[in-house]
Amino acid sequence: MNIAVIDMDNLKNPFWGAGQARATREVCKLLAKRHQVTVYSAKYPGWKDYVEDGIHYTHVGLESSSPRLTNLLFAFSVPFFGSRIKADIIVENFNAPFSVSFLPLFTKIPVVALPTMFNAIEFTKKYHLPFHWVEKVGLKTYKYMLPYSNVDSSKAKRLNPNIQFKIVPQGVGEEFFKIKQLKPEYILFLGRFDNHQKGVDLLLQAYNKVKDVIEYPLVLAGHGPDEPIIRRMIDELHLGDKVTIVGPAYGDKKTTLLQKALFTAFPSRHDEMSLWSLESLASGLPLVGFDLPECGWAPKSVYLKAKPFELDEYAQLLVQATKPEVIQPLRKEARKFASQFTWDFVASEFEDFFDKVIRQNLNKERGL
User: Fold this and answer.
1) Above 80 in pLDDT, residue 304?
2) Close Cβ partners of 303 (under 8 Å, ≥ 6 residues apart)
3) What domains does the chain contain, in order, with CATH numbers?
């Protein structure tokens, strides 16, 4: 099987290198053991095509020194380079701000959508442009999808009753289950510094409300476009002695951060099952966030949830989670819950769905 994957990001991209790029790598390296796999990613300063883990990474679109402009240019270019792809199946990771690219209108190859970014309404609110209408109309051009949960599948069926789908969650690597927990020293946030999605500003505002009573400092690990805003907030709220930014965290640095954390702050405004949330749980760190529909996949036994964007409640939840009698049962349950999500399972489910789609299309061509 010749599989083409469209993913704006990859792990060598200095702008992002985010969770979905890791998910693409983990799934594709397993598929590459049995199939030919090519990933089409956005260009960035210093880009070079490369092969890693059996995956061929090809860079397309126009190069820019601006992360957001690069993202936008890539999104607009998908129908153009996508129409020239030669493969048995194309997997398209949806991209901000409007999710869809209308690619199925430009190719006869079956396109399977991955709703990695399926919240155009949020970008409509942010930029006051009708991105959600583009998403609504564009989804009708897609026949196939691999949603992460019932939230995405329900939305997809509402916008396109004819879409065929199979719910397949994210996965997590075995290495996270092997991390040895040390004496907790701080609360951890790890992720992209993007307030609109990840809600770091909400976390800082809530933490500020209890900074004089909470016993643990807050460590922010990551990078992203809103880092200057986040640093300014820390200064304005006089949190410099309680909040530390440690930059991007990969490899041994990430492991060390996970070893010494008490729990993970997960204050996202809109975030489907993310790779980082599973890595956190697999490391024995429960999540503390908001009770969003997208977070329904995680039970209260591993995820403490405040009413959406109620900062007073969230602040008190942060304090409650520092109490041993509250957090220890959740820490114990976290790894057990995460153990059901493996990359082998995800890759196998993808492969089965691809086979079904390809057979269906061949039978259609033969008039069967």
Assistant:
1) yes
2) 266, 286, 287, 288, 289, 295
3) 2-171+342-361 (3.40.50.2000), 174-338 (3.40.50.2000)
